[in-house]
Design goal:
The protein is built from 22 helices and 7 strands. It is mainly α. Helix 6 runs antiparallel to helix 8 and helix 14 runs parallel beside helix 19. The C terminus is likely disordered.
């Protein structure tokens, strides 16, 4: 009865008489009579054999308030027969409820959650994506630091302090006695300024410490049946460190790419989804509500900007399109010339620094040591700024402009780092010829690089430290004074300059560059991930302060959906560069004789076959089988087949998404057509009501609309029966 009364309230009886005697409303006029029972709800629970029952769908579609629907659902549950698996159902419900509570509790421990939400509300999803990326790198570096500390740092400290029995591999060192001389220990009495210079440059007391490669032993500790091979642990930890970082990036890229594929790189479901279903009704307080409103406004600005540029691009003539593409080609040539000049300058600065720093001392020597870092940092600041100005002339969409600037800048930074490493490699290996005079008898340039691994680690340490110092100096000496001048000076020049905008592409690129430097130097400076963790934490607070105090919202917003994927993609490029450096160093370059855990091995990889020989026959044969062609070729074929299957599946899903989107567009057009028809009909009815009534020519004449009889608008007749 309550349902029938509710139905009568929603569909009241029409005021005009009906020749058919029907009490149904105009809305239900076209529904066949045999389907009227579907609108009435059956309180009985569905039978057990009705697997395709539509009762939950009918309950969901009934025009009832939530309290009545809940009561109906409870009655259905009461009439459901108890089965033997009720205990399992209760256990699953309890476990699901526990997971929800645990997820809710853990959400309070998410790093910088409130701060990043505030940033997204004030400055949009693009700026928020930078801080999410920064948080990901902080967690990644922290976990990597724990991995290195657990298997390399802590065992080395314990074994060195407790004097365990250790064995050193015996090799023939005849003819290479000069290569064993390496004593970086500083004098006991030193001036304070010397300590400061050593701390900044990584030399002196810093060089012979756990910070760098040269301090670790090449011994295998044995005690009461326990053995620990430090060289093997050092190499395997570095390998697992790179593998762990790669897996974390792939997992995060998977989640980001799913969002990008679903949205198609555009607005998520159009404006209707954002306006009608995007609001969070659980928000409380004016602060959170205002942040959500600001976030909505930024997203709508991005969508409108994208649509405006698409319409403008579609309206270009053939001549305008050709001239636009010609301009873009010319600007790309200019960018390549700038990047090439930067590479040449970095190579010359590195060669000059390595040759002259031994001839000077004090502050001049420090400047020469930091000369490659200063040239790289200056070029990474000036050239991307010019590239950003050039990208504005190419007239791309905001998201495409950010991605293009990001790719250019990441190419500049990563290749500049590669130029630095290549220059060091040329000098360490005598340009690849170990039979030159400078590389005999040590197989590397001993006179200049007594412990070349530590020297490479020092270069990466200086790049990391110098990047941090430049960021702090820019914040204090440039950004704060600019804000003060703009706020307190009313001249036209300062108002034209205005407050700075937080440019996402250069800032993300700085993070990618810093992380690439850490990956490159982690093998030669094991504590570098821990240093980078502290550096990124300080970066977060410095960038947050300058964002709220010194920056204004960007005049051109961009969509963060696709940009998040590209941020991780360029990070993978940096990981690949660092991986190539590690593989080449481990397999090709001869280790230093006087330092490090691989000092008596011909290559660093040689420790793995020697450790394999110490295993039993079954384990050794299994490992050799994994590394043989019998295993690698089938694995490669299976990977190719799996990749083809996933690619085909992705293509099918993409076509399905495109088809559904086209159907949604057609439905929107149909709705717009119906709305226009209703407006025309209302206008016609209002016009007829304003005109004087004419005498009727017949008693059975119906109002005609588009040459069709429509009994709904006949004043003397009711609608058709239900």
């Amino acid at each position: 009865m309550e349902l029938r009364e509710f139905n009568n309230q929603v569909h009241p009886t029409p005021d005009y008489p009906s020749p058919y005697g029907s009490q149904h409303s105009l809305r239900l006029r076209t529904v066949p009579a045999q389907e009227t029972s579907a609108a009435q709800f059956d309180w009985a629970s569905p039978p057990e054999d009705a697997e395709d029952s539509n009762e939950p769908r009918n309950l969901r579609e009934l025009p009832l308030h939530m309290g009545l629907k809940r009561a109906v659902w409870q009655v259905q549950q009461m009439r459901t027969p108890v089965v033997s698996s009720s205990w399992n159902i209760k256990q699953s419900q309890t476990f699901r409820r526990f997971c929800e509570v645990a997820k809710y509790v853990l959400s309070y421990f998410v790093l910088w959650k409130r701060g990043i939400q505030m940033i997204g509300g004030h400055f949009g999803g693009g700026v928020q994506s930078y801080f999410l990326f920064l948080r990901f790198l902080v967690i990644l570096n922290f976990l990597s630091s724990l991995l290195i500390a657990a298997f390399v740092l802590i065992p080395s400290i314990v074994f060195r302090s407790m004097n365990f029995n250790s064995t050193i591999p015996t090799v023939n060192l005849t003819g290479v006695e000069i290569c064993l001389q390496y004593d970086p220990k500083p004098d006991t009495l030193m001036v304070f300024i010397t300590y400061v210079l050593d701390l900044i440059s990584g030399t002196g007391f810093m060089e012979y410490s756990y910070l760098f490669y040269g301090y670790y032993n090449n011994s295998m500790v044995e005690s009461d049946g326990f053995s620990y091979n430090i060289p093997l642990a050092y190499l395997l930890t570095a390998s697992f460190y790179f593998l762990f970082c790669f897996i974390c990036m792939i997992i995060r890229m998977g989640g980001t790419s799913r969002v990008a594929v679903v949205t198609g790189g555009g607005a998520t479901g159009g404006y209707s989804t954002l306006v009608f279903t995007g609001w969070d009704h659980g928000l409380q307080g004016d602060r959170t509500t205002n942040l959500k409103q600001s976030n909505f406004r930024n997203r709508l600005q991005v969508d409108l900007e994208e649509e405006r540029l698409k319409k403008k691009a579609a309206s270009l003539t053939l001549g305008q399109t050709v001239s636009l593409y010609a301009l873009r080609v010319f600007l790309n040539i200019v960018v390549l010339i700038l990047i090439g000049a930067t590479f040449y300058g970095i190579a010359k600065a590195t060669q000059f620094s390595q040759l002259k720093q031994k001839e000077t001392t004090g502050f001049v020597a420090l400047l020469l040591q930091y000369l490659p870092s200063m040239v790289i940092t200056a070029s990474n600041f000036v050239v991307p700024l010019l590239c950003d100005k050039i990208a504005l002339l190419e007239k791309y969409s905001p998201s495409t402009t950010v991605i293009l600037a990001l790719l250019r800048a990441v190419f500049l930074r990563l290749v500049s780092l590669g130029v630095l490493l290549y220059t060091l490699w040329e000098q360490i290996t005598c340009e690849g010829d170990i039979y030159k005079e400078n590389c005999i008898p040590c197989n590397y340039y001993y006179n200049e690089y007594k412990c070349w691994e530590t020297r490479v680690g020092q270069e990466m340490y200086k790049l990391t430290l110098f990047d941090f110092l430049i960021t702090i100096a820019t914040l204090i000496l440039v950004e704060f004074p600019r804000r003060i001048v703009v706020d307190h000076c009313s001249c036209k020049l300062t108002q034209w300059v205005g407050r700075q905008e937080f440019l996402v592409a250069p800032n993300v690129l700085a993070l990618v560059y810093s992380q690439t430097v850490v990956w490159t130097g982690a093998f030669f400076c094991p504590l570098l991930p821990f240093i980078n963790t502290i550096k990124f934490i300080l970066f977060y607070y410095c960038k947050k302060i300058t964002l709220f105090q010194n920056c204004q919202p960007a005049t051109r917003n961009f969509r963060s959906t696709t940009s998040n994927f590209f941020f991780l993609l360029v990070l993978v490029f940096g990981w690949m560069l660092a991986t190539m450096v590690l593989l080449y160093s481990v397999t090709k370059i001869h280790p230093s004789y006087g330092c490090g855990p691989f000092r008596f091995y011909p290559t660093m990889w040689e420790v793995v076959p020697q450790a394999t020989e110490m295993l039993n026959n079954t384990s050794a044969e299994f490992l050799f089988y994994i590394g043989s062609q019998k295993f690698s070729i089938p694995l490669f074929i299976f990977s190719c087949v799996l990749l083809c299957y996933v690619s085909a599946l992705t293509s099918v899903h993409g076509k399905s998404v495109a088809l559904l989107k086209s159907q949604c567009k057609l439905e929107q057009r149909d709705k717009q057509f119906l709305v226009r028809q209703i407006e025309e009909l209302n206008a016609t009815v209002q016009k007829e009501q304003r005109e004087p009534q004419q005498p009727q020519r017949g008693t059975d004449t119906a109002t005609r609309w588009n040459q069709h009889d429509n009994y709904a608008f006949t004043r003397d007749e009711d609608p058709r029966p239900y």
